Amino acid sequence: MSNKQDFFKTEDWWSVWLGLFIFLLSLGSLAGLDLLGWAITPKVWTEFTKSIAPASKAYAALNPIVSIILTYLAVLGILMVGAKSLGYDLKKFIYGFTVIFWLTYACTIIGHYAVIAAQTPAEMEKFGLTWSLKLTGEAGLILALLVGLFIGNFMPKFSASLKEAARPEWFIKTAIVIMGVGLGVKSAEQLGLATSMMFRGLCAIVEAYLIYWALVYLLARKYFKFSREWSAPLASGISICGVSASIATGGAIRARPIVPIMVSSLVVIFAVFELIILPFVATEFLSNEPLVAGAWMGLAVKTDGAAVASGQIAESLIYARNAAQGMNYEPGWVVGTATTVKIFIDIFIGIWAFILAIIWTTKINPIEGEKAKAREIWDRFPKFVIGYFVTFLIMLIIGLNWPEIKSELKISASESDVFRKLFFALTFFSIGLASNFKKLWEEGIGKLMLVYIIALFGFIIWIGLIISWIFFQGVMPPLIQ
Fold first, then answer.
1. Which residues face 54 on adjacent strands?
2. For 242-249, what is the mean pLDDT?
3. Is the pLDDT of residue 341 over 90?
4. Which range among 26-40, 105-119, 163-177, 257-271 shows the weakest confidence by mean pLDDT?
5. Position 241 confidence tier, pLDDT thresholds 50, 70, 90
6. What is 73-119 written as a DSSP string?
7. What span, in angstroms and rounded, lies between the C-alpha atoms of 236 and 435?
C-alpha cells in the first residue's frame, strides 16, 4: 500500500482534493446554502462595466470588483495549501499565480466582447450588432494561449519568474474533477445517451490503443532507427495521452529522464497546433455530427488539457452554427464526449505501463532479482480520474434517485462550473507559457518532431476520425426543451 503521505505529495492527488473541495461547497445548494454564488463569471458585453458579474443572482448586489478579488483570493488560497504540501516556493508561487490569474482573466474578458463572442441572431440584436465573429467566449481561451506563447518565447526572464505557478497539468486535472459534477447531472437527465456515449468511448479508445501505438512504434524503430528506449515513450506520447503516457512509459521501461521530457515537450508543442486547428476543421465538416467531433478531439489531441479544451471550443463553434439554423442543443455533450474518451485513455495508461513494465523487465531488459509488481498499475494510474468519477457518480446517483431536486442540482453544477472554466483558462495560459520552441529545437528535438509530424498527420488524426465516426455517427445530443 502507498505511504499515506503520497496522497499529499503529487499534483495528481492535489487535483483530486481541490476538485472535491469545490464540489462539496457546490452541494450547499441542496441544503439551500449558496456557497459559491459569489464567484466571478464573465459575460458577453459591449459595455465594459457589464463584462463580469457574480455567478448567482443571490449575490447580484455584490460589486463585481469585490467578486473577482474574492475569486482570486479563494483560488490562490486553496492552491497554496497544495503548493505548500508539494514543497513549492510559496513566495514565487504567489507572485506567479497572481500574474497568471489576472492576465488570464483579462484574456477571458476580452474573449467575451460581443463582436467576438456573440453567436445567435437574438444575441447580436441584443447588443445592436449586425455581425460578429461568433467565436463565443471560448475565444478568451485561445487569446490566453497566445499571450502565454508570446511571453514564453519572447520574454524569457518574465516567463521564468512565473514558472513556479505555471502548472497546466495540475490546473486541467482539477478542472476535469469538477467537470464530473455537470456531466453527472446531465447524465441523470439523459441516462440512455450517457450510457451509450461511455460504452462507445471505451470501444473507441481500445481500438485506438491497438492501432496507434503499434504503428508509431514501428515507424520509430524500423524507419527512423530509434532505440527501444526512445521508441516506446514516443509511441505512448504520440498515440495515447501525451505527457502522462510518455512519463509513465519512461518509468515503466526505466528510460533515462531526458527521454520522456523531450517527448513531453513535443506533445505540448503539437497540442497547441491541434488545439488551434482541429476544432475549426471539425466545425466545418462535422457540424451535423457533434458527438463525432467530440470523440475526434478526445482521440486526436494528445494532452488532457488541450483535448478537453478542444472539445469545449468545438462544442461552442458547432452549437453556434446549429443555433443559427434553429437547432439548440443542450450544452456539455460534445466536451463531455471528448472528456469521456480522454478519461478512458487515462485509465488505461496505468494498465499499459504495467504491461510494458512486465515486457521490459522479463524480456527486453531483465535485471536479476527484479520483477514487475502489480502495484505498478496503481502507481501509474492517473489519480485525478478517481476524483472525476466520484463527482460524476455522486451527482448521477442523486439525480436518478431524487429527481424532484433537479433545479438545485443544476445550480450546484452551474456554480461549480465557474471554477471549472477558470481552471481551463489557467491551463491555456500555462501551456503557452511552457512552450519554449527555440530551446527545444536547440536540444535536438528535430528528428523526434519529424516522427511526430508523420504519425500525427499521416494516420493518427485520420484513424481517430474514422473510429469516432464508426462509434458516434448518428448519436446526437438532446435539444433544449
1. 40
2. 72
3. no
4. 257-271
5. low
6. HHHHHHHHHHHHHTT--HHHHHHHHHHHHHHHHHHHHHHTBHHHH--
7. 20
* Amino acid sitting at position 408: E
Answer yes or no: are the C-beta atoms of 332 and 182 closer than 8 Å. Answer: yes
Choose among 142, 444, 109, 118: nearest CA to 273. Answer: 142
CA separation for the pair 164, 89 (Å, rounded): 7
- Cell numbers placing 474: 448518428
Reported for 212-221, long-range contacts at CB under 8 A and 24+ positions apart, including other chains, are 212/238, 212/239, 212/240, 212/460, 212/463, 213/239, 213/240, 213/352, 215/239, 215/455, 215/459, 216/451, 216/455, 216/460, 219/451, 219/454, 219/455, 220/451
Specify the DSSP element, H or E, that contains 41: strand 40-42
Give the residue among 463, 449, 445 at the shortest CA–CA distance from 215. 463
Burial of 122-154, coded b for 16+ CB within 10 Å and e otherwise, reads ebbeebeeeebebbbbbbbbbbbbbbbbebbbe
Round to the nearest angstrom and report the end-to-end CA distance of the chain: 49
Q: Hunting for cell 464530473 — which residue is that?
A: 180
pTM: 0.76
For the chain, how big is the Rg over CA atoms in Å?
22
